[in-house]
Write a structure and sequence with these properties.
This protein is mainly α. It has helices at about 10-20, 25-35, 40-45, 50-75. It is globular. It starts with 8 loop residues before the first helix and ends with a helix.
Length: about 80
């Protein structure tokens, strides 16, 4: 991760937050947002149902939101 470069500190912080998610959420978030795979493609890759991928994306987003909200509130 040290060799990755980001456009801004916020982008770097977001990537770090994604990488700290539990693996089952981190993998689907990474494939969807960073690798641009569709839900269908992710379900094929991970051998999961499409609904399971959608649930993991939703829960991963919620965890990210809560994590980033805590960081943002701490900065105030």
């Amino acid at each position: 991760m040290e060799s990755l470069t980001f456009e801004s500190a916020e982008t770097s912080d977001l990537f770090e937050a994604v990488m700290k998610l539990p693996e089952k959420y981190r993998v689907v978030i990474h494939l969807f947002y960073y690798e641009d795979y569709s839900v269908k493609e992710i379900s094929d890759i991970l051998k999961l149902s499409e609904s399971n991928v959608k649930v993991r994306l939703s829960r991963g987003r919620m965890l990210l939101k809560n994590t980033l909200q805590e960081v943002w509130e701490d900065d105030e």
